[in-house]
Write a structure and sequence with these properties.
This protein is an alpha+beta fold and about 250 residues long. It has five helices and 13 strands.
Amino acid sequence: MKEKQILDPIQPMETTTRRWKGWIVFFIGLTSLFYMVDRQDAFVLTNSQCAMTSQRPSTVLHSGFPPIDNVTGLTILPGKAAAIAFEPNPAVERLNVMGGESWWDRLFPNRHVHLHSVQVPVLSARNQTISAVVSICSGEGGRLTRRKRFPDMQHCVSTKAVEIETEPGDTFGVLEWEPEVVIVLKKSTRYWLVLESPSVESSFEWVYAEQPSDVTESIPVAIQGENGWQMQLKDTPPPSAIVTVERHS
């Protein structure tokens, strides 16, 4: 009887030890799983590879087409920039595209999309070759403010230098950007499409949209000048721009 009384207290300790070992093994396995998911398809997908599992892109910004005649634009001064705001939140529809994103993005796919393309019409009275830097940036302001007032050039999701050669008879040219890597955009975040003049010697114009509607007139447009960023006047039409994204599951 004495031996039984001595051994009985040891049995709960052994059970507790086995439980702790089980939890340790579980957490190690879970950590390994997250690591494998994060490392899976760690290589960068090209657009042709993404097209195999994607559907038709969705337009999340369309400020209007440029006019055929009497084309004018927003002047971007040498070394300065202009920007137009958009939110990449198309109708929810599931796709299966992976790569270039974290395991958190994959666990919550409906919270983000992938940038597909950017089209911006530009013109220059002096130069046939127009060079610009196109960026997708978040906005300035605190973390609790979702609708940031101005673009934050220090926190850009992606930046691309683009160039176009226009013909003497062309009214304007179109700068196009189709990312070769996966660029993740959060649906709940306001982003800024920023067009910057990289040269300190020349400027160009970002072509205004023709006959803006009530919707496009309300699109925020910011202009960078000598005194920093300022909002464009309400009576001025927005510059023409098209941004498309791809959704996935």
